[in-house]
Amino acid sequence: MSQLALPNLRGGHCWPGREIRDPTVCEATLAHRYPADMEVIRRHHMPELKKPIAIIAFGGWNDACDVASTSADFVVDAHNDPDVFAEIEPDAIYDFQQHRPSITIDDGVARKLRWPTIRFTALKRPADAHDLIVVSGPEPNFHWKTVARSIAELLADVGVDQVILAGAYVGAVSHRETVHLSGVGSDTVSVIRSGLDSADYEGPTGMVGVVQGACTESGIRSLSIWAPTPPYLGGNPYPKAVLAIIEKFSDMTNLHIDTSELIAVDAEYTQKVDDALEDAGSDISEFLEELNSYNEPFLGTLSDKHRDSDEPPSPNLDPERADALVDEIVRFLEGNG
Question: Taking the CA of residue 224 as centre, how many other CA atoms within 13 Å lie in the half-sphere pointing to its CB?
Answer without folding.
Answer: 28
